[in-house]
Amino acid sequence: MTDDGAAVVAAVEAVAERIEAERDHLTQLDSAIGDADHGGNMARGWAEAADAARDLDDPDAEAVAKTVGKTLMAEVGGASGPLFGGSLVFAAGELDEGITPETAVAFAETYLEKVEDRGDARVGDQTMVDALTPAVHTFKKSIEVDDLPPVEALAKAVDAAERGVAFTVPIRARKGRASYLGWRSVGHQDPGATSTLFILEEVLDVAANRVGVDVPETDASSPTIPDEDPDEAADDGSAAASEDD
Amino acid sequence: MKKLINDPDDVVDEMLDGMTAAHPDRLRRLPDTQVLVRDDAPVDDKVALVTGGGSGHEPTHAGYIGDGMLDGAAAGDVFSSPTADEFEALIGACDAGDGVLAIIKNYEGDVMNFETAIELAEMEGVEVESVVVNDDVAVEDSLYTSGRRGVCGTILVHKAAGAKAAQGADLSEVKRVAEKVVDNVGTMGTALTSCVTPEKGEPTFDLGDDEIELGIGIHGEPGTERTEAMPADEVTEHLTEAVLDDLDLDEGQEVLTVVNGMGATPQMELFVVNRRLQELLGERGLETYDAWVGDYMTSLDMAGASITVCAVDDELKELFDAPADTPALTKK
To answer: Contact, B128 vs B48, CB < 8 A?
Structure first.
C-alpha cells in the first residue's frame, strides 16, 4: 500500500469511529428537523466503508477514496448516500497522483462542487454546504494565497467548518427535509453540516499525526473566512478588499 | 396489523424473487441487487428505458418491464429510493450501446441517487438521458419533494417512450416523447385510509371513519386537504377539476385518462369513479380517446384512487396504442 493509501485508510477508520461515537448526537439533531436516520445511516455506512477500505489489496489514495465513496453510496441511502458517497467517488480522481497540497485542493473543490450540484444547495440553505463551503475556500486560500503548511491549512478549514455549523442554527432551511418546516427550522443545527465537521476534524487529526505535529490550535484570530472561491475573489478587486475588513 | 409477510426486512427481497418466479421468461434479477431487468437485456439496436423507486407501489415499477415498455427497474426498500449503485447496475445491464433513458419520479432521493448513477455510468461511456416526472397537481412542494411529485402519470411516460424506443427511435427522440407526456399530463389522488408499511406495522396517518384526504402522494404522506367523506361523484369532481384546471385544455381536446387504485380499492369503486370522470370530461367539451382503469401505481394497502388526464395528439395516440407485453400492462 502506498503511504497515501495507508493515510486515507487511517482517516476513514478514524471517521468511522467518530461517527459511531456521535451516532446518537447526529440522530438527535436529525429528529428535530428531519427523519431521525442520519446518525444510524452514517454510522453504518462509515463502518462498512472502513471494512471495505481495509480489505483493499495494495491500494493508492484514489482507490481507497473511490471504494469508500461507493460503499457510502450503497449503504447510507437517502440523499446522504449520493451527497457524501457520490461526491467522494467523483473527487477521488483528483488523487490519482497521490496526495499533495495541490491535489488536496483539487479534491476538496471537486467534492464541494459535486455536493452543491447534487443538492442544488448554496451557503445559507441550512445544509452540509454551510460547513463545507467555508472549509474548502479557507483550505484553498491557506494553501494557495497564504502558503501555509497543509496541516495548518486543514486546521483553518476545520475552524471555518465549525463556524459554518454554528451558522446553520439561526437560519432557515431552504433545502433538504428540514426545508418543509419553513420557519420552524430556525434554531436547529444541521446534522449534515455537523457530520461534515466531524469528518474534517478526524482527517485533520490523522494528517497531523502523519507528519508528526500537534493539531494546530485554531481560534478567533483565524483569518476571515473567504465567502467565495479565492480564485473568483481575486478577479474582483473590490470584493477581495472588502473581505479584509 | 395482519399482513402476509415474514420478516419486514426481507419483504422486498422476497417479493422480487416471487416476481421473477411468476415471470421466469420475462424477468431476471441482477445478482446481489434489487434490480430486475428483461430476461433478454440488453436488447440490441434499441434505446433502453430504465426506472426505479421505492417498493410498495406494485405493479410499479418492475411490472412494466417487457416489450414496448421498460428494460429494467431498480426497487428500493419500501417507500425509499434505491441507492445510486443499484441504479448504476441497472443502467449498465440495460445499455446495448444505443443509450439509456432514465425515467425518474420527482422525489428528492430518487432524483439524487439516479443523477449520481447517471454521472457514474457516463464515466463508463454509457450515453444516458433522463426525464423527471412531476404530474401531481396537488402540491408545489411536499414532504418529499422540491416541486411537484411524480405519481401515476409516470406509467404513461413508460408507455409512450417505450413504444418509441421499440420502434427504433434514437435517444433524443425517445426523450422528446417522454417530455411531451410530462408536459401534457396531470394527476390528483385521494386517500380513504392510510396505508400500513411492513416496518411500522400501523397506519402512517390517522384518518377518521368519516374523513378523507385529498391531494395525496404515493408514500402514505397525508394529502393537501382533509375533508369529510363524500359520495364517489363528489370526490371525482374535486379530483377532476383540480387536474383539468391545471392542464387548461381547449374544448375538443382528446385525452387519455387513468383511474388508478391505490391498492385497497375494489374495481367496482374505480369504475364508479371512471363513470363520473367521463361525464365531467364531456361536460367540459373534452373527448376521451382511451380510459384506463385499474391498479397501476399503488401505495401498499391504501384505499383510494387517483385520476390522471393526459392530452394526446396523433403521435401520442399511436404510441399509447402500440403493442406492449409486460406483466402488468399489455396492448395488442
So the answer is: no
Instruction: Give pLDDT tens digits for B107-126.
Output: 888 999 999 999 999 999 99
Query: Chains A and B: how many Cβ contacts under 8 Å?
Result: 58
Instruction: Using the predicted structure, report yes or no on whether residue A240 has a pLDDT greater than 50.
Output: no
Rounded to an integer, what distance in angstroms lies between the CA atom of residue B325 and that of residue B40? 14
Output DSSP code: residue A223: P
Give the number of other CB atoms < 10 A from CB of residue B77. 21
Chain B residues in contact with A176 (beta carbon < 8 A): 108
| The three three-digit cell numbers of residue A22, written as one number | 456521535
Distance between CA atoms of residues B324 and B329, nearest Å: 7
d(CA B158, CA A149): 55
Identity of the residue numbered A75: E
Neighbours of A234 (CB within 10 A): 13
The pTM score is 0.87
DSSP lists the bridge partners of residue B212 as B227
Residues 6+ apart with CB under 8 A from A3: none
Is A78 near chain B, with CB under 8 Å?
Answer: yes
Q: Is there a contact between A243 and A227 (Cβ–Cβ < 8 Å)?
A: yes
Strand order through the sheet with B100-105: B27-29, B35-38, B72-78, B48-55, B100-105, B128-133
* CA-based torsion, A200, A202, A207, A211: positive or negative: positive
CB contact under 8 A, A90 and B115: no
Put simply, the answer to whether B143 touches A180 (Cβ < 8 Å) is yes
* A77/B119 touch (CB, cutoff 8 Å), yes or no: no
Q: Which ipTM was obtained for this model?
A: 0.77
Per the rule left: phi > 0, alpha: psi between -120 and 50, beta: everything else, B189 is: beta
